[in-house]
Design brief:
The termini are far apart. The protein has 3 helices and 29 strands. It has 499 residues and is mainly beta. The strands form 7 sheets. Strands 9, 10, 11, 12 and 13 form a 5-stranded antiparallel β-sheet that branches. Strands 1-2-3-4 form a 4-stranded antiparallel β-sheet, with no helix packed on it. Strands 5-6-7-8 form a 4-stranded antiparallel β-sheet, with no helix packed on it. Helix 1 (10-39) packs parallel to helix 3.
Length: 499
């Protein structure tokens, strides 16, 4: 027998409607928050299980747009899912290095023999752990424009997980390699920017839209971009000297201005939800300035600290970030000045090797453990590349070992970890070519892990995880390739990008 229906008091309907509206607003807020977290490389299996449980446990009223009362309340699910999203974000932050650069490689001239293991006398401090393919969802962003052409030359690379990465390279202006729209003024007949994306750890690549501007490798031009960084699957920047941003995974790009006019971006990195840019301020020609913004917006704020420029021809500020702390080293022939990020603020800091009369490069294994390679006496009495470590966040450094087996220092990176015997990779010259040498015992011993390539330079050297790292190798004539390691730096392979 069906229970009799009773007319509802209008006041009750009003109260119910208010609750429905409130729940709808709350659902929208939760959805927006979870969409941003879901776009980050959280495990698919976790997200799928939560979604399945939510469907099983609560019904959805057709046309109502809110969860039926017989299941768990939306507020309960919102709180639970928010907790899961936050936990996923924390796990990602703990597992990933902030991207100082890199990913996998392109067709073109081969590198020559790639070392299959150490060829010197290093004794690794621990056995390498294998990389397990992650189950991360395809990042949010645009549909692929097409395959990567065989003549694509990468100049900058960035990964946000073991799977999701992007490469900046060359593309003909006005082609499908660049974003629809007019190329940058003066770009006719020049090379425009193009971007390739991978969602499977560099195994396959495809072109996606790029900022409609020219390519400026090394950032030494007056216009265009030469660097690329992503903070997550949605938020990325092409920079140097111009600054372009995307907040939808690369579907669209827009030009961004700094807090001062005429700023030329020289370095940019993102970590812990904040992006930092170092730029030349035309109105304050003696200094490098730093500005920062939340990654999901273009709300740039100028730091009070000023980092002194050097007297050389090419200032080269270098960011190294680890979680919410970071360092900036300004090199112009020699180490000139520095700054340190702590508590959300940049302040003055004395970098290592300031009195060594040569350049230096910095890497961070944790917020306390740093590694520095210094080309001591390059502009006075050359003494070679030496290695220094800090265990107090850069307050002090000490020398480890003697001279490294490389010259012409080109970069350094440290694998993420909490111990003092962390893996370090250094790029530099050996004989007539450029090679990678590695230490797996905190700098006591070194071995060659990527054999020298003739007339090459190595850039964008960086770890994504403790096992995965990448670098770009540029050969004479401008051809370039991306190389990758999946065993913590012990072996390296070139990675094909496309046809």
């Amino acid at each position: 027998m069906t229970a009799p229906m009773h007319p509802r008091d209008p006041r009750d309907r009003s109260a119910d409607d208010a609750r429905v509206d409130d729940d709808r607003r709350f659902e929208d807020d939760v959805r927006r928050a979870l969409q941003r977290e879901a776009a980050r490389p959280a495990p698919d299996r976790l997200v799928a299980r939560i979604a399945a449980s939510r469907r099983d446990a609560a019904g959805v009223q057709s046309g109502g747009g809110f969860l039926a009362r017989r299941g768990p309340s939306l507020r309960s699910w919102g709180a639970a899912l928010g907790t899961v999203a936050a936990a996923a974000a924390i796990l990602v932050a703990l597992a990933l290095r902030p991207s100082t650069g890199p990913a996998p490689s392109v067709g073109g001239p081969t590198l020559g023999p790639v070392a299959t293991g150490p060829v010197a006398t290093a004794v690794p401090s621990e056995n390498p752990s294998s990389v397990q393919p992650s189950v991360a969802a395809t990042p949010a962003g645009p549909a692929a424009l097409g395959p990567v052409p065989a003549d694509f030359r990468p100049v900058s690379v960035t990964f946000v997980s073991a799977d999701a990465g992007w490469l900046l390279g060359n593309g003909p202006c006005g082609s499908t390699a660049v974003q629809a729209g007019s190329p940058a003024p003066g770009s006719t007949g020049t090379t425009c920017a193009a971007i390739a994306r991978t969602t499977d750890g560099g195994r396959t690549w495809a072109l996606i839209p790029a900022p409609p501007t020219t390519l400026a490798p090394g950032g030494q031009a007056n216009a265009g971009v030469g660097g690329l960084r992503f903070a997550d699957a949605l938020d990325g920047w092409a920079f140097g000297p111009e600054l372009w941003a995307t907040h939808d995974g690369g579907s669209t790009w827009h030009r961004v201005s700094m807090p001062v006019s005429g700023a030329a971006i020289m370095a940019l990195e993102a970590s812990a939800g904040v992006v930092h840019a170092a730029f030349f301020d035309a109105a304050d020609a003696g200094n490098v300035r730093i500005a920062s913004s939340p990654v999901a917006s273009d709300s740039w704020a100028l730091a009070a600290v000023k980092v002194q420029l050097g007297a050389g021809p090419i200032p080269q500020p270098q960011f190294v970030l680890h979680g919410s702390v970071g360092w900036l080293v300004e090199v112009d022939r020699t180490v000139v000045d520095g700054a340190r990020l702590s508590g959300g603020q940049w302040s003055a800091w004395t970098p290592p090797c300031r009195s060594s009369n040569g350049p230096a490069s910095l890497g961070a294994s944790s917020d306390a453990n740093l590694a520095a390679a210094c080309n001591v006496g390059l502009w006075s009495t050359p003494a070679g590349v030496h290695y220094y470590v800090s265990s107090d966040g850069g307050a002090s450094f000490r020398a480890v070992g003697g001279r490294l087996p490389v010259g012409d220092l080109q970069g350094i990176t440290a694998a993420p970890g909490s111990g003092t015997s962390f893996t370090t990779i250094v790029a530099g010259r050996i004989g007539g070519g450029t090679a990678l040498v590695a230490s797996f015992d905190g700098g006591s011993t070194w071995s060659t892990v990527l054999s020298p390539a003739s007339a090459a330079s190595i850039s964008n050297l960086g770890f994504t995880t403790a096992d995965q790292a990448v670098a770009i190798v540029t050969l004479e004539g401008g051809a370039s390739q991306l190389v990758m390691t999946r065993d913590g730096g012990r072996t390296w392979q070139s990675v094909a990008l496309g046809s």
